From TrEMBL:
<dbReference type="InterPro" id="IPR002549">
    <property type="entry name" value="AI-2E-like"/>
</dbReference>
<keyword id="KW-0812">Transmembrane</keyword>
<feature type="transmembrane region" description="Helical">
    <location>
        <begin position="6"/>
        <end position="37"/>
    </location>
</feature>
<feature type="transmembrane region" description="Helical">
    <location>
        <begin position="206"/>
        <end position="223"/>
    </location>
</feature>
<keyword id="KW-1133">Transmembrane helix</keyword>
<dbReference type="GO" id="GO:0005886">
    <property type="term" value="C:plasma membrane"/>
</dbReference>
<feature type="transmembrane region" description="Helical">
    <location>
        <begin position="229"/>
        <end position="256"/>
    </location>
</feature>
<dbReference type="Pfam" id="PF01594">
    <property type="entry name" value="AI-2E_transport"/>
</dbReference>
<keyword id="KW-1003">Cell membrane</keyword>
<feature type="transmembrane region" description="Helical">
    <location>
        <begin position="299"/>
        <end position="332"/>
    </location>
</feature>
<protein>
    <submittedName>
        <fullName>Predicted PurR-regulated permease PerM</fullName>
    </submittedName>
</protein>
<feature type="transmembrane region" description="Helical">
    <location>
        <begin position="49"/>
        <end position="77"/>
    </location>
</feature>
<feature type="transmembrane region" description="Helical">
    <location>
        <begin position="145"/>
        <end position="165"/>
    </location>
</feature>
<feature type="transmembrane region" description="Helical">
    <location>
        <begin position="268"/>
        <end position="287"/>
    </location>
</feature>
<keyword id="KW-0813">Transport</keyword>
<keyword id="KW-0472">Membrane</keyword>
<comment type="similarity">
    <text>Belongs to the autoinducer-2 exporter (AI-2E) (TC 2.A.86) family.</text>
</comment>
Length: 356
């Protein structure tokens, strides 16, 4: 009876989340903010500040800092966005010589005329891409759902974050009181492990992504790449999505470099070198120091989680894919340990030495 109850409850929760994924973003954002800021509120509470006042102070300062940063950088970002929209045709035109040579090489190798009219193809692609961007921007601005989502992020997320942060300890205590006495210690242990993993990823990854965005912007500005600040912000934001985001940002930067300098191996090499240097700093210094081994996810599992999250829940799924995968990994490791202990199997079996 208990088994089927939990299976049914899990199925209902999953179905509910899937059906409400369209309005889930502001609530997930509020939950993430409350979770992220709970340690700060706890410290204020330890200093005899009432929990409600502590939550209000922390949430207010947090969102004021975000608004301040956006307002400070918005004129620069706005000018670069306007400039990049004007320079896109020149960027695509910069690809013309390389594309001509590549297609001509394919034509010579395979004996087929695959070159075609590159100029008209690029011009058509540029016009169509700009038209689609303008149409998409207009559609987003006119869409009631999009406006609702933007307003909900701006208005609902802070309210959700405040109430969750104010009542965080009460909610945790209430859930803890529901645990059955027989398995309460196991559940608490799993919850602590999940909290460690999520804290290691959420708090650490946000700091790592911010530092990486700053390093990208400084590095690409130093090598003379146009729109370096905008590309750095893009790279930092995309770095929240492991592997895929960083590679996408690097590809955009290289494409912008081709449009600016053509196929100049020195300049493009400098752009790529900035990406590689930042990745080395991230892999050898930032992630070990700020995240460490607390997440402990295999890269293949991370990639699968990102693509699966995007397929199931779209953009929201991509954002929560790695934290969800980390929590699932904690549960999977626990059940593997239970299985190994039940059957008396050693937890680390060394592979047999190969015979010579």
């Amino acid at each position: 009876m208990n088994k089927w109850f939990w299976i049914g409850t899990t199925a209902v929760v999953i179905l509910f989340v899937y059906l409400t994924k369209g309005v889930m973003l502001p609530f997930l954002a509020g939950l993430a903010v409350a979770y992220f800021l709970d340690p700060i509120a706890d410290r204020l509470e330890a200093l005899k500040v009432p929990r409600g006042a502590a939550a209000a102070m922390v949430i207010t300062v947090f969102f004021l800092v975000i608004v301040g940063v956006v307002l400070a950088f918005w004129p620069i970002l706005q000018s670069q966005i306007a400039a990049i929209s004007q320079s896109l045709p020149q960027t695509l035109a910069g690809l013309r010589p390389w594309l001509n040579d590549t297609l001509q090489t394919l034509s010579d190798r395979f004996g087929q005329d695959v070159a075609g009219d590159v100029d008209s193809m690029l011009a058509s692609f540029s016009d169509e891409l700009l038209a689609r961007v303008k149409h998409g921007a207009g559609t987003v601005l006119k869409s009631g759902l999009a406006v609702f989502n933007i307003l909900s992020l701006m208005l609902i997320s802070p309210v959700v974050a405040f109430y969750l942060l104010r009542d965080w300890d009460l909610l945790v205590a209430k859930v803890d009181s529901w645990l059955p006495p027989s398995g309460s210690e196991v559940v608490r242990g799993l919850a602590r492990n999940v909290d460690t993993v999520l804290a290691g990823f959420v708090r650490g990854q946000l700091i790592v992504s911010t530092i990486m965005g700053i390093l990208y912007a400084i590095g690409w500005s130093a090598v003379g790449l146009d729109f370096a600040i905008l590309l750095g912000v893009l790279a930092g934001v995309m770095s929240i999505v492991p592997f895929v985001g960083a590679l996408f940002a690097a590809a955009v930067a290289v494409a912008m470099g081709i449009g600016q300098w053509g196929m100049d191996p020195v300049q493009l090499g400098l752009v790529a070198s900035v990406f590689l240097v930042v990745q080395v700093i991230e892999g050898s210094l930032l992630t070990p120091k700020l995240i460490g081994d607390r997440v402990g996810l295999h890269p293949v599992w991370v990639l699968f989680a990102v693509f699966a999250g995007g397929e199931v829940m779209g953009f929201v799924g991509v954002l929560i894919a790695v934290p969800a995968a980390a929590a699932i990994a904690v549960l999977v490791r626990y059940w593997i340990d239970v299985y190994l202990e039940h059957h008396g199997i050693p937890d680390a079996v060394q592979p047999a030495a190969s015979k010579e």
